[in-house]
Amino acid sequence: MNLNKDDKDKEILEVQVDQNTSKSKDDIPQKSTEISFKKIMECKSSLVNPEINIGLFPVKIPVIITELLVHIDIESKINLPKPASYIKSIKRKVFIKECNLISNINKLFLNGVVKKSIEYSEAVDGSASSMEGQIKNIIVEIPFNCVTEIKYIIDPVVPKKNYKNGIKVYSIQSGEQTFYESYSESDKIFCEVIHASFEEVNIEKNKGSYTHLDKKDTFRTINQKMFMHLNIRLIQNQNIYVASRLH
After folding, report:
1. What is the rounded CA–CA span in Å between residue 121 and residue 137?
2. CA atoms lying within 13 Å on the CB side of residue 150
């Protein structure tokens, strides 16, 4: 086959391009990812007015007996595992374990704990000018208990003092006897912590210092004096009447 000079150059160029071109990974067809989806259609809805009986009905619902603000002083001592340079933060949460009401003397006995999460910097001895260690965290539980006199918003329902237990002899000759007793129960009274606030002073004890030339104080023990304010609500299920009427 006879080729002129232009055809020869064109052929050579095409060969060179074909030889110097290689397919990259991006040029290789990849298997497509299958994506499935489903369109959710909107449903229509309308308001249905329930049937309401009109009148005065007895119901049993939680009733707030009283709400009070209790002030509790707590003193505690906490020993850290290793010396610390400073306390970063303290978070507290109150848990009521026992809440016992003696209604005839209007006394409320409280027993619980304050769970503290203490975040502090553990002291590190070294050659750096800033001697701060890792931030550590410990959780401690500080117990408390107290008794306080209360006043009622609504009187609690208490067991009636009609407990009886005795023996009645019907016939002395036959020895026939009848035993009788009766008592009543009421719903338990529950405590709710509505709000809690704290005022606390931390006193560092067992102080030491780094051995580095740039000495800084450390401590192992914390004496804590805390004043706690608890907003507590007492609730009891009671039978009451509710009036129902159309507007």
Report:
1. 9
2. 30
Residues composing the chain: 247
| CA 188 remoteness from chain centre | 23
What are the CB-based long-range contacts (under 8 Å, 24+) for 206-210? 208/83, 210/123, 210/125, 210/131
In 43-187, where do the E strands start and end? 55-102, 107-122, 135-149, 164-171, 176-182
pTM: 0.66
Percent of the chain residues past pLDDT 90, beyond the cut: 48
DSSP of 161-213 = S--EEEEEEEETTTTEEEEEEE----PPEEEEEEEEEEEEEEEEES-EE-SSS
Distance CA 202, CA 84 (A): 13
- 78: CB partners within 8 A, 6+ apart: 118, 138, 140, 221, 222, 224
Residue 164 pLDDT class (50, 70, 90 cuts): low
* Model pLDDT for residues 80-103, shown as the tens digit of each residue: 988 888 899 999 999 999 999 998
- Specify the DSSP element, H or E, that contains 222: strand 217-244
CB 242 within 8 A of CB 59: yes
Q: Where are the domains of the chain?
A: 55-156+186-238
